[in-house]
Design a protein that fits this description.
This protein is mainly alpha-helical. It has a single domain, classed as HPT domain (Four Helix Bundle (Hemerythrin (Met), subunit A), Up-down Bundle).
C-alpha cells in the first residue's frame, strides 16, 4: 500500500458539505451512522475472500467498499479500497495491505462522530 494514501485526509470536506446541504443534518447523521456496519462487513468479507485465496472476489469486494466509502465522503478509505481493487496482484499483497486498510477503517470510524456533527474538522 502506497504510503501517500495514509497522508490523505480521512474525509472529503467538500463531499460532506454537499451531503449536509442535500440531506440536512439529521439525514446526514442517519446516513453516516450506517458506515460502521458497512465498513465492518466489507472488511470481514475481504478477509474471508483472502482466506479463501479468491483474489477476484477480494477485488470485487474492495470495489464495493470504494463505492460506499466514496459516497460517505470517507476519502482515505475509498482511496485504499481503490488500491485494493486495482493494484492487487496476489493474495499475498492483499494480506500485507490488510492491516493498513483495517487502520483506515478504525481511524475513519473514530473520526465519524466529529464529522457527523461538524464538517469543519473533517480533514483529520
Amino acid at each position: 500500500m502506497r504510503p501517500s494514501l495514509i497522508e490523505q485526509p480521512l474525509f472529503d470536506v467538500a463531499q460532506i458539505a454537499l451531503l449536509r446541504d442535500a440531506l440536512g443534518e439529521e439525514e446526514l447523521r442517519a446516513m453516516l451512522s450506517e458506515l460502521p456496519d458497512a465498513a465492518g462487513q466489507a472488511s470481514h468479507s475481504i478477509r474471508t475472500a483472502i482466506a479463501s485465496n479468491d483474489l477476484q472476489e477480494a477485488r470485487r469486494l474492495a470495489h464495493a467498499l470504494k463505492g460506499v466509502a466514496g459516497s460517505f465522503g470517507a476519502a482515505r478509505l475509498a482511496a485504499m479500497a481503490r488500491e485494493f481493487e486495482l493494484e492487487a496482484t496476489s493474495i499475498a499483497s492483499l494480506e500485507q495491505a490488510m492491516p493498513a486498510l483495517a487502520r483506515a477503517i478504525e481511524e475513519t470510524l473514530t473520526a465519524l462522530p466529529e464529522v457527523a456533527g461538524d464538517s469543519s474538522g473533517a480533514t483529520a
